[in-house]
Amino acid sequence: MTDHRPEHRPEHRSSQRPHPVTSRIVARRTAWLFAFLPLVAALLGLVLLGEGDRPQEPLDQLPRDLDSTLATELEQRLPDEGSDTAVVLWTADEGELDRGALDELRSVAQDLDAVGGGPQGPVSVAEDGTAAIAIVQVASGSATDVSAEVEDLREELEETAPDGVTARATGPAAVQADLAAVFDGANFRLLAVTAGVVALLLVITYRSPVLWLVPLTVVGVADRFAAIASTQVMAALDVAWDESTVGILSVLVFGAGTNYALLLISRYRDELRHVEDRYAAMATALARTAEAVLASATTVVLGLLTLLLSVVPTTRGLGLACAIGVVVAAFFALVVLPAALVLCGRWVFWPKVPRTGQAALVDMDSFWHRVGARVARRPAVFACATVAVIAALTIGLFGISTGLDQDEQFLDEPEAISASTRLAESFPAGLTDPTRVVTTADPQEVARAVEGAEGVASVQPGPQGDGVASLNVVLEGSPGSGEAESAIAAIREAVDGLDDTHVGGTEASAIDAREGAAREGVVILPLILGLVLAALLLLLRSVVAPLILVATVLGTYAASMGAAWWLFTGPLGFSALDESVPLLAFLFLVALGVDYNIFLVTRAREEAAGHGARDGMLRALAATGGVITSAGILLAAVFAVLGVLPLVVLAQLGTIICIGVLLDTLLVRTVLVPAAALLLGDRFWWPRKVRG
Hints:
Blueprint: H1 9-14, H2 20-25, H3 31-48, H4 67-75, E1 83-92, H5 99-111, E2 124-125, E3 131-139, H6 143-160, E4 165-170, H7 172-182, H8 186-206, H9 213-237, H10 243-272, H11 278-305, H12 313-344, H13 367-377, H14 379-394, H15 415-424, E5 435-439, H16 443-451, E6 456-465, E7 468-475, H17 482-494, E8 501-504, H18 506-540, H19 544-569, H20 581-640, H21 648-680
Antiparallel strand pairs: 1-3, 1-4, 2-3, 5-7, 5-8, 6-7
Helix pairs in contact: 3-9, 3-12, 6-7, 8-10, 8-20, 9-10, 9-12, 10-11, 10-12, 10-20, 11-12, 11-18, 11-20, 13-20, 13-21, 14-19, 14-21, 18-19, 18-20, 19-20, 19-21, 20-21
């Protein structure tokens, strides 16, 4: 194959000498230190420290200062604050429950210390006679504690159920237990699948039986180190996190770390075609890669840190954990990986070992150069066609609704949800999970006000103590319905003039979660865009290019949300998005999506110094096309792995990011950005001059 290296290349390379720090990382005498000491430190941290631990609190997932959160805070003063409610449901396998079965159920309920029940005792029988329920208090605590209590309850119910009767547990405690069960061993399962996907794609990318092991090992250790560091920091700072935090962190570290590794290895392999000394080749490759990786990582970290402004404590924890994870991923990619690769020698690329004098990465006969040449012939047509595709996909964005009901949170329906659905067939809606009104005012006055609110079926006194009283309010509307939402609004209006009186419970919390998400969107989304734009302005020292790049990632986000919505409401059958999904998808797509544009335009700026803006962009596309496409496909696949967890919010988030990354990698970065740069020429870099 003809060598298409530019004739001026030696001068161009000498003008960008490796920084002393990067040279020291891959020097003959010190490379082993940078390769092995961080790995040893990470392994020691895993053995000696392990992941941090912090007990989960009732307020961890509630939006700060909203009404349902204030109700939960007030509830902590009640005598039964140390318990959660489980609802035992008995149903006849055929026909109605007979007298003998009911007598047995009452005996079982007494043994379970069931509470309430009214005239029928602790067991309430449905009017149709096919079902009965009892309310059981379950000691609260961590998710593990609640799960253990509910599991014991279910085992006892199975053993004591009369012949012809099926016993199940539902209610808030059972739902919490089933939610925790989703993550039982999930982080290991997610890590194993993620590592498997990354390994497969690295083998396909490098076509080497050896090379993929080096970056996979480095990124794998980085992932474990990030999990330890982030959870220990959050525990020390008393920052809340939940079961999904470490899973999302692992996906991000594997995705970002492998992307950085792909970029570094691509430049290293290119330099090995020009330099015989592999240490010198790596020093040059690392110097040229570091700017793009550091700019990318800084942008992502700043974007993630905006989540510290979230009104939800666990969302703040997710932002902090992932920011730490990206810092760790960048460190291992820029320090540990280059030292490990240079110690291995050229043979690590076997069977396609790069030799001095082979064709350069900027190959004028490559597939990506042909793509660029085709775009260059008619840039306006390609730009308009790409914008039209993005606009068409964006249409679905206008139909999006948010707010999943409790029975829609799981991909695989657990017992608590199926039991709740069956219970609603025989008992009034809202009976098993009543709305809670908590007050320091006169409870009788509060009860009278609530009873007069539209949509209220009944009001029963709840626990009292320490100057706090609670009321259990059963709504006429079914959970998640517009009627139930209207009833919550009516109750809040009725008690508005009463001192320190708040409305809580599942229904009220869902309404407040939507309000909290709306508030976050107003504050955090513009801040993310501003930070990304500022980072690009500083990196490129240009005005036009950053504005175009930010506009493209915005278009990618809108298109991916629209396309995903059609997928969700069609084949997948979801009725809405979880409230947290739009914000998190925006953050990850904007912060990660701009990565590939950074990789492209920093290379274009480098090439433009010797070839001009037009040819510089085409050469950059030819040089980075393969590696960025591989990185994008890998990142999309890694986020799609979130679907292995049977939780709808993670499946939705993974799907949207997967679609967005593929759009950005295969369409926006390949066609739209080069077309815009070709149309504008030198003006793309205004006010900077890029010609040498």
